[in-house]
Hints:
Helices cover 26% and strands 24% of the residues. By secondary structure, the protein is α+β, with helices and mostly antiparallel strands. Residues 1-16 and 198-202 have low confidence and may be disordered. Keywords: Acyltransferase, Ribonucleoprotein, Ribosomal protein, Transferase.
Amino acid sequence: MSPDTEPEPDTEPDSDSEPEPAPLPTMRPATEADLPAVFALLTEAAERLAEHGVEQWPTRFERDGGWRARRIEEYVADGYLYLGSDDRGYVATITLSPHADPDFAHAWPGGPEDALYIFRFAIAGRVAGHHVGEHLLAWAADRAARAGKSWLRVDVHRRNEELHRYYERMGFTRVGTVVTPPRRSGALYQRPSARLGSSSDR
């Protein structure tokens, strides 16, 4: 079963024409009332991954009382899960937690405390390829800086080379690998936290 720490960035196949970049979505902490939108975004992203043969998430996210659903609900209750929207509706969700995945906490350089950790990063298909993921990762690095953390971190599928290259293009460095069967995640990436201008702090 795929781990819950795999983001689904806004990558699209290369083309001759570069899509128009979209602005940073308006970001806010999700509430319990937003859970249907969160699950819908995650399910849309999971279905796209499955269509491309990428094994990293379940094919659907359901509010079924299972551990994934409970974890998402806990992230919302703790104020760690964010929703992004534009003038047409919700376009992204990302969780930023001060707590590392327990399976990987021991392997982060300098220990797990000095970072925010990305979980459940998903972009709506209608804005995929428009650099929304890039904007959101810069926003997340800003949140880490404002929280007094030195790093923004994520653990990803060990064998997903495309995802590795994506994070490396986004300024992340691979700092370790942890193998904890049956989990597929364990490639550890981090980038320095960095403040954005005050106008981008939403």
